[in-house]
From TrEMBL, chain A:
InterPro entries: DctQ, TRAP_DctQ. This is TRAP transporter small permease protein. Residues 27-156 form the Tripartite ATP-independent periplasmic transporters DctQ component domain. Belongs to the TRAP transporter small permease family. It is a multi-pass membrane protein. It is found in: Cell inner membrane. The complex comprises the extracytoplasmic solute receptor protein and the two transmembrane proteins. Pfam families: DctQ (PF04290). Keywords: Cell inner membrane, Cell membrane, Membrane, Transmembrane, Transmembrane helix, Transport. The chain crosses the membrane at residues 12-33, 53-75, 95-113, 133-153. It comes from the Bacteria. Part of the tripartite ATP-independent periplasmic (TRAP) transport system.
From TrEMBL, chain B:
Its main location: membrane. Keywords: Cell inner membrane, Cell membrane, Membrane, Transmembrane, Transmembrane helix, Transport. Belongs to the TRAP transporter large permease family. Pfam families: DctM (PF06808). It is a multi-pass membrane protein. Part of the tripartite ATP-independent periplasmic (TRAP) transport system. The chain crosses the membrane at residues 57-76, 97-123, 143-166, 173-197, 217-238, 245-262, 282-304, 316-336, 348-368, 380-399, 405-426. It comes from the Bacteria. Residues 10-422 form the TRAP C4-dicarboxylate transport system permease DctM subunit domain. It comes from Neoaquamicrobium sediminum. The complex comprises the extracytoplasmic solute receptor protein and the two transmembrane proteins. This is TRAP transporter large permease protein. It is found in: Cell inner membrane.
């Protein structure tokens, strides 16, 4: 992959990954404060349940997705690797990237439309804390969209490392 | 409908063999299958919501939290010390660390309800040590993937709770029922390890000579924090201070605090642990999110339902029906996540079998055991994937190490079928 | 004539009352009365979508009909959540009929058609009751001060805290263990559903005449699917829906009655609150309704008018 392209994609990968890391750390704190507060002081952390499920889990999954793929973290079968790698031009990897780019692009597009409509409606939950639910839906299109971009680039510049690079 | 299901399953194989990441293959074939069975509306409707819905789950938060705890323990070098100590004690035996991993797996299973989380934790903790002491990669990773499955049988177990919820069977009785089969399974793993290292001594080299007793005791010095942590987590769950869902988060926080207080974790260790935990969690969660699309596709084709109807219509002896259902669970286990299998099949299989007079609690153990075996069978053995990704050993190598254990698992399943008392004796004492 | 296939999705296992009283009779009656022209395919137990995603599933035509829990959609159907407020009714059959009227009139455009769905029938459960793992008496509301009560949703949290209790969110799969081991002291729940989770095994007592809110469900059909159905098919579905709306609420009410018998048989103490205690509850619970109206009006929604309309339907 040409360096400027790689650097641009990695830049966003890293930002997304940093937010995902923050999410897993905050999740640990939020659930712990809820559980320990309830046991020790009879004061659970209200809203921890919704905050964890609606935001932190989604952020962790989908913002962690592009960087995990880029670093070869997604598991795949490698039984045919020695043979596939010998075909000139790496056509199998290109086709993989093409299919995956298409499907993740499709996912990002439609979940993006969904997210926009939630923002327009400003859907908010009722309760002790009124959660702005529209902020729960933006992470799917963001993560899948960035992944689709990388995959699209890989159609032209297929990755040579089937197994990952760490 | 059936032809689409078969076609998509074949395509799933092809894409997997072509080296496409597992999560992507589930999403691709699920989406294409949805389009072929229902057209554009179900496709768009499912793809934009199902991956999101399946990860917005509080119970599922247990998974990243246990992974994070494992990474903090590793960054604080506690797990390494645990296995170094067990190597001092058991290392002169062949396969010592593997036995230590079985013991560790039992302890982890008593705090974790998720097999995937347990496998990830064990792999991160034990594999570097096993490699350092010269264990064969296939053997060590295979054993770790298998030992991780203990978590779904030994209570607390997400699988047993789910079974109880779906079938209106006593959750308390189910959890009690899981204890003996869990112990039996653990013992069978230890026996398998003993058998493997006898037949192939190179798989697990022994240390040169037994370590002195003084050094062994000295080795325990850094082990007590992790034992204390495990002990307090078990105590916290059984006393009701913390729910099984929350214990991962509190455990991770405790591991972090212990590591910082004992000055065993610097800023860069912390960042590295956080990054590794995020990566591993995001990978597992991506598989769960993407397999949701494939699961809904299978549901919409009605293939599982039709199969069960056919069994019911054939009017065969009850025992044959039971075997057929278990066989179907094992076959589904090749492709699907354990919880997905239970969710897909229980609504039809349970009334069918309970109607034939089988004891629900016993059925729960058999179902969970069958789903457990699916965790380690190719091509969709999620525990194998988790271990492979954590250890950077190729999936193929892990699967090779898993096979002997799969055979033993089938024997254990046969024992559970032949002797219902193994499952039913303890709940009967309640 | 071409055969019409309708997909019906819900969150209940086939063994659950929620399925036995709605999805299964709906399928049977529609298929019977259309003389086989309409086929209803059931997708129980969250097979097609998680409970929280059923509205999206029917909106996006993943399914044609879905039984949607109102508690999960308080963001997109905020005014509908009025029917889950505590103390509005004692007879859940009347509550269900009033809810259907509200859904098909005042709320039809703003809450249902806006989301691309149309209500077929609705149901509210009999009022929630307080149940305890150890406690066996409840003579004064002050006894709930600081007691950890499992609350099922956001409204449940407000209800518990208005009574002085500490609301705790526990996933349904953890509730059994949480009660057994004392993570929570009790739960606000409806009696028939607790058998599905074997909660009766870990209970000591349950109230019989408290009114701690309710859970509402609405069977929704995709509006495009509905408009695409031939007139005669719509007629059959509407008729069956109306009947099920009545029988389901009645069936659930009946199950509540038999649930108490079963619980008493198991040695669980039934607590009947004295009129004085009930009055204390009612007074404390008023803050929940006030908070609901405040939040709705704060979003520019006609909260008070909706409540008034619901109350007037209840009077009928
Ligand atoms: Na367990
Ligand atoms: Na498998």
């Amino acid at each position: 992959m040409p360096r400027p392209l790689e650097r641009a994609l990695s830049f966003f990968d890293r930002i997304f990954m940093a937010i995902a890391q923050l999410a897993i750390f905050v999740m640990m704190l939020s659930i712990s404060v809820d559980a320990l507060g309830r046991y020790l002081f009879n004061r659970p952390l209200q809203g921890s349940f919704e905050f964890t499920t609606l935001y932190l889990m989604v952020i962790l999954t989908f913002l962690g997705l592009p960087a995990t793929y880029a670093s070869g973290g997604h598991i795949r079968l490698d039984v045919l690797k020695p043979w596939l790698a010998r075909i000139p031009g790496n056509p199998v990897e290109r086709v993989n990237a093409l299919i995956a780019a298409g499907i993740f692009g499709f996912l990002a597009w439609h979940s993006g439309i969904e997210a926009v409509s939630k923002f327009i409606d400003r859907d908010t939950s009722f309760g002790v804390i009124q959660f702005p639910l529209y902020w729960s839906y933006v992470w799917v299109p963001l993560g899948c969209g960035l992944l689709a971009l990388r995959l699209a680039v890989e159609i032209v510049f297929p990755r040579s490392d089937l197994e990952g690079d760490e | 409908m059936v032809s689409v299901a078969v076609g998509m399953t074949l395509l799933l194989f092809v894409l997997l063999l072509a080296g496409m990441p597992v999560a992507f293959t589930m999403l691709t074939t699920g989406a294409l299958g949805l389009y072929l069975t229902g057209g554009i509306y179900p496709l768009i409707g499912v793809i934009k919501t199902a991956p999101y819905e399946h990860v917005t789950s509080y119970t599922l938060s247990t998974l990243p939290m246990f992974v994070l705890m494992a990474e903090f323990l590793t960054a604080g070098r506690f797990t390494r010390d645990l296995f170094a100590a067990s190597h001092k004690w058991l290392g002169h035996m062949r396969g010592g660390i593997a036995y230590a991993a079985v013991a560790g797996g039992v302890m982890l299973s008593a705090v974790s309800g998720s097999s995937t989380a347990a496998a990830g934790t064990l792999a991160a903790a034990a594999h570097p040590e096993m490699r350092r002491y010269g264990y064969n990669d296939s053997f060590s990773t295979g054993a770790l993937a298998v030992i991780g499955t203990l978590a779904i049988m030994i209570p607390p177990s997400i699988g047993l709770v789910l079974f109880g919820v779906f079938t209106e069977t006593s959750v308390g009785a189910l959890l009690m029922a899981g204890l003996l089969p869990g112990a039996l399974t653990a013992a069978s793993y230890a026996l398998t390890i003993a058998f493997i290292v006898r037949r192939n001594p190179d798989a697990a080299p022994t240390a040169a000579e037994p370590v002195s007793m003084r050094e062994r005791i000295f080795g325990l010095k850094t082990v007590w924090p992790i034992l204390l942590l495990m002990g307090s987590m078990i105590a916290a769950i059984y006393s009701g201070a913390i729910t099984p869902t929350e214990v991962g988060a509190v455990g991770a926080l405790a591991a972090l605090v212990i590591a910082i207080v004992m000055r065993r974790m610097g800023w860069s260790d912390f960042l590295h642990a956080l990054s590794a935990a995020t990566r591993n969690s995001a990978m597992i969660l991506a598989i769960i999110a993407c397999s949701a699309v494939f699961g809904i596709f299978l549901t919409l084709t009605g293939v599982t339902q039709n199969l069960l109807m056919a069994i019911q219509a054939a009017d065969v002896p009850p025992f044959v029906v039971l075997l057929c259902v278990l066989l179907m669970l094992l076959v589904l286990g090749f492709f699907l996540d354990q919880l997905a299998i239970l969710v897909l099949t229980l609504p039809l299989t349970f009334p069918l079998l309970a109607g034939l007079g089988y004891e629900p609690v016993w059925l729960g153990i058999l179902f969970v055991k069958a789903a457990e075996i699916g965790l380690i069978t190719p091509p969709m053995g999620i525990n194998v994937f988790v271990v492979a990704s954590t250890t950077k050993v190729t999936v193929g190598k892990v699967f090779r190490g898993v096979w002997p254990f799969v055979l033993v698992e089938l024997i254990v399943l046969a024992l559970l079928i032949a002797f219902p008392a193994i499952s039913l004796w303890l709940p009967g004492r309640m | 004539q071409e055969k019409i296939v309708l997909k019906y999705a819900d969150q209940f296992p086939l063994t659950h009352a929620g399925s036995k009283l709605s999805a299964q009779p709906f399928k049977q009656m529609v298929e019977e009365r259309s003389a086989g022209r309409i086929e209803v395919q059931l997708y129980p137990a969250e097979q097609l979508a998680k409970a929280a995603g059923l509205l999206d599933a029917v909106r996006n035509r993943v399914t044609d009909i879905a039984m949607v829990g109102v508690v999960y959609v308080s963001d997109r159907m905020p005014l509908t959540s009025a029917v889950e407020l505590p103390g509005l009714f004692t007879d859940s059959v009347a509550g269900s009929i009033a809810f259907t009227k509200l859904a098909q009139n005042e709320l039809l455009e703003s809450e249902y058609l806006r989301n691309g769905v149309r209500p077929l029938f609705t149901m509210v459960t009999p009022p929630y009751q307080a149940m305890f793992a150890k406690k066996t008496e409840l003579n004064d509301v002050s006894e709930l001060e600081g007691v950890k009560m499992r609350a099922a949703g956001a409204t449940g949290e407000l209800i518990a805290s208005s009574l002085g209790a500490v609301p705790v969110r526990v996933p349904a799969s953890d509730l059994y263990l949480a009660l057994e081991r004392g993570t929570v002291d009790g739960a606000n729940y409806n009696p028939p559903s607790l058998f599905a989770y074997k909660i009766e095994e870990v209970l000591s007592s349950i109230t019989t005449n408290a009114s701690l809110g309710t859970v509402a469900f609405a069977a929704l059909v995709n509006e495009d699917v509905w408009q695409g159905l031939p007139e005669d098919a719509r007629k059959v579905v509407s008729e069956v829906a109306t009947e099920i709306g009545e029988t389901m609420a009645a069936g659930f009410k009946e199950q509540t009655g038999s649930a108490y018998d079963k619980l008493e048989e198991l040695g669980i103490k039934l607590i009947e609150l004295s009129p004085e205690t009930q009055a204390q509850f009612t007074e404390k619970l008023q803050s929940v309704e006030a908070e609901w109206v405040k939040q709705m009006e704060g979003r520019g929604l006609p909260g008070q008018a909706t409540l008034d309309a619901y109350r007037s339907y209840l009077q009928e």
